[in-house]
Amino acid sequence: MSEPVVIFLNLRRTHLEHSAAIEAAHRLGYGVALIADTVPAGLPDRIVRVVHQVDTYDQTAVDGAVEAIVAAYSVAGVVTWSDRDVETVSRIAERLGLAAPSVAAARIARNKYLMREALAGHPDTIPRFTRVTTWEELVKAVDDVGFPAVLKPTSGSGSKGIFVLRDKEQLRGAFDALMHYTRPEVDRVFLDNPNELILEEFLAGTEHSVEGFVSQGDIVIAGITDKQTIEPFRLELAHTFPSLLPADVSARVHQLTRTVITAIGLDNCTFHLECMVSPDGRARLVEIAARVGGDFITSHLVGLATGNPFAENVIRVATGQRPELGGGQPLYAGVRKIMADRPGVLVGLDGLAEALTVPGVRHVVLERPMGTLVKLPPADYMSSTVGAVLAVGDGADRVHDSLVRAVNAVRVGISEA
User: Fold this and answer.
1) pTM, whole model, 2 decimals?
2) Is the pLDDT of residue 415 over 80?
3) Which of 32, 36, 56, 249 is the most buried (most CB within 10 A)?
4) Which of 14, 79, 9 is nearest to 312 (CA)?
5) Looking at residue 13, which CATH number applies to its domain?
6) Total of domains in the chain
7) Phi and psi angles of residue 229, each rounded to the nearest 5 degrees, phi first
8) Same structural domain for residues 12 and 104?
9) Does 14 share its domain with 45?
10) Containing domain of residue 192, as a range?
């Protein structure tokens, strides 16, 4: 039998992110067995031992790939890097006797309605909410939830499909847009619950995420990330790690995290919890995911700030080991996205050399190839993010200034479609 491998179910979309994960497995002595819909060019074949390119929404095809891997390799763990495969990972792990959340817990972590239902005994941790599948249900739900409110899919991710509603006049347009968007033929992430929405109380305050691990029942928090979003669709624009929240408020966020994880029953996984902190310091849940945080938070920011690469601990937990977090005084690390301001075709990205000379900047990332058709929300929630800048500094204000300078140096070229 050859060296042990960890099964990766799909990869993050950028080379910078997925390379961090692959190299982490290698540093810990594992090869990678990749099962993916699409396979990026240039994967390191001395680390990625085998690739099965299949439709990962097809459970039979995934099972066949797993059987082939098990026949040839000693499988030490299975892990995914995005929401859509969380339940499949739990199903594979259950079959192979590997570390992962239970299938039931994974299902709750993939559905915002189910996770709020799981926390019904802790009403102080969640907003008022109602499940919505029809126009009539939405009209009735407004009476229970009130305005302002948020309407969104129960199983979306990456800020897809979030509508902030201020009055009844905005209901119909948001509902119709989401009924169109949450069809499997538009996005296959909605195969299991098409046209299922949640209307919930709008939470005012600052937005944050908690990065960490649950290992053999122990909750290990690596830190809190401060987030910046843009209206009206709550798209995530920038992140800074670690948080600038006061110690007492951070403690409330930590307690919220422990309450949520315990109520859902998550174990043996990485988690990424998003929450809102109100002006009076109250922390309430937005959602929790049983996987890493995206937008370079866990692939880069945590490691750049702390010196403890996050991806290694993802692999440790997926292979039944405990995470290892070192001490020491952290730096600050941040990311800010390069956004298109209008729809069209991406034809250029100028000013990269200038951006790279800004002190503190570590990476400037192109996330969309030239020729990409760019759309703005609500037509599309992803393509308007064309790149990102990552920076490090000895203070959050210095990181913010570096990121703003670098992003402002970049000029996005968009031509008419």
Assistant:
1) 0.94
2) yes
3) 32
4) 79
5) 3.40.50.20
6) 3
7) -120, 165
8) yes
9) yes
10) 128-201
